[in-house]
């Protein structure tokens, strides 16, 4: 791989009223900063990872989404959007598509030496029920990963790394809402890849890098989140540079960088041990030690 590909990312814009630590009233002004960044960085594409608004009701959400679409409109680079849970609380995927002027289902886009995988898995938080990992979504991803003949950037709103939420303002005490139930099946599908891969998501409102089975999973801080940068919003957006190395740089008040060797993402780790009390070799040792301890002492 010799050609460098540059992708700009923004996540969890949350345009609307301020809500908890989300400074939604700053969203449009921060989008101006993001547009200036894109104009200077001149990426090959711009990716919106979803949660463009803080939802209220159907009519209000339509207006908020349109205002965010207007904020994206001046960007000349190709743009690709995903829906987050707040984009779906009161609006359908079709309504989001109409506002943004593009399909929002599963898509792949070949750019340079890499393939962008926009995995549009169901991002709605169903009430009751929470997130639902639909079999059709998983099967589409499995087919895409299996057929891949070039490196992949897999993008979704909801992360699937299973990373811990200790310290997260929203999810430390609500971890079930941070990912899909059954996310381990998604990771198993990703591990079938025979090409280098990087996974990128939003939703959890902080910067993380979690490596699972040698596959790096990145999450991007929200544009308007403030719990890590109080009292002001993080103003976070990122540039992903893909070439002989993968470089991830988050800008704003909550900066983060990562450098990844694409070839190293092809390694696969040894299957984890079962619980110690179920491992036959360890159980045999314990039984042997117990029998030895029970033998009467020699006269």
Order of helices and strands: EHEHEHHEEHEHEEEEEEH
Average pLDDT value?
A: 96
Rounded to the nearest angstrom, the distance between the terminal CA atoms is 75 Å
Identify the CATH class.
Alpha Beta
Explained architecture:
- The protein is of the alpha/beta class and 299 residues long.
- The protein has a single domain, classed as Purple Acid Phosphatase, chain A, domain 2 (4-Layer Sandwich), CATH 3.60.21.
- The chain has helices at 27-41, 58-72, 85-88, 93-100, 135-147, 183-190, 280-294; strands at residues 5-10, 45-48, 79-81, 107-111, 114-118, 152-156, 197-201, 208-212, 215-219, 237-242, 246-251, 256-260.
- The strands form 2 sheets. A 6-stranded mixed beta sheet has the order 3-2-1-10-11-12, with helices on one face.
- 39% of the residues are buried.
- The model has no long low-confidence stretch (mean pLDDT 96).
Q: Gist?
A:
Helices cover 26% and strands 20% of the residues. It is an alpha/beta fold.
What key attributes describe this structure?
299 residues; 6-stranded mixed beta sheet; Purple Acid Phosphatase, chain A, domain 2; 7 helices; 20% strand; alpha/beta
């Amino acid at each position: 791989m010799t050609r460098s590909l540059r992708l700009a990312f923004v996540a969890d814009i949350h345009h609307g009223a301020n809500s908890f630590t989300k400074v939604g009233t700053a969203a449009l002004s921060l989008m101006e900063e993001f547009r200036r960044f894109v104009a200077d960085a001149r990426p090959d594409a711009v990716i919106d990872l979803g949660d463009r608004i803080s939802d209220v009701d159907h009519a209000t959400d339509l207006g908020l989404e349109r205002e965010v679409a207007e904020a994206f409109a001046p960007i000349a680079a190709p743009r690709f959007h995903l829906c987050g849970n707040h984009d779906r609380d009161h609006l359908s995927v079709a309504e989001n598509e109409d506002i943004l002027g593009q399909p929002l289902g599963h898509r792949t886009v070949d750019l340079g030496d890499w393939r962008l995988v926009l995995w549009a898995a169901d991002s709605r938080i169903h009430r009751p029920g929470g997130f639902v990992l639909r079999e059709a979504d998983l099967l589409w991803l499995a087919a895409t990963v299996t057929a891949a003949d070039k490196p992949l950037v897999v993008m979704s709103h909801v992360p699937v790394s299973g990373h811990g939420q200790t310290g997260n303002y929203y999810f430390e005490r609500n971890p079930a809402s941070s990912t899909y139930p059954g996310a381990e099946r998604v990771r198993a599908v990703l591990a079938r890849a025979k090409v280098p891969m990087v996974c990128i998501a939003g939703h959890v409102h902080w910067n993380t890098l979690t490596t699972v089975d040698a596959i790096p999973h990145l999450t991007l801080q929200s544009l308007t989140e403030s719990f890590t940068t109080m009292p002001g919003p993080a103003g976070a957006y990122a540039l992903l540079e893909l070439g002989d190395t993968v470089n991830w740089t988050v800008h704003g008040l909550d900066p983060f960088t990562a450098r990844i060797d694409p070839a190293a993402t092809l390694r696969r780790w040894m299957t984890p041990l079962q619980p110690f009390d179920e491992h036959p070799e360890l159980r045999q040792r314990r039984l042997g030690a117990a029998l030895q301890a029970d033998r009467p002492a020699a006269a």
